[in-house]
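Q: What structure does this chain adopt?
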Amino acid sequence: MRNSFILLLLVISSYSVNAQNVVWHTDINKAVDLSNKTQKPMLLFFTGSDWCGWCIRLQKEVLKTAEFESWAKENVILVELDFPRRTPQSDEIKKQNMELQQMFQVRGYPTVWFVGVGKTDSKISLEKLGSTGYVAGGPSAWLTGANRILKK
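A:
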């Protein structure tokens, strides 16, 4: 009984440690620097976190799972571009998110863009690799589509 309890604690703590290592950036400049440093593309998650039902569903079914988090650590730099109705944001973040929404012509939520990053001097270039949104079927189905986009 005691061994089972210890094993259960180890499994739970490993999930906790795993979840804490995933970072969703909100500052595009910091994410671009990290993308250049690691040579990983960025995943831009356009969301309405406190009002969009499909965004909340995507988070719950995919983006907050251990499978996604493990994949994300290896493959992408995560960027959340939120358009909340009740959650306060700084004017700087609102402006940044609106400019990126216009650049990527986001018309609905959730929208996920995968982008390659280039930076010369102080100029940033974002290469559109592909986009997706909510995909039924949980993390496996969503990640299959994401991998197809990244392998193009």
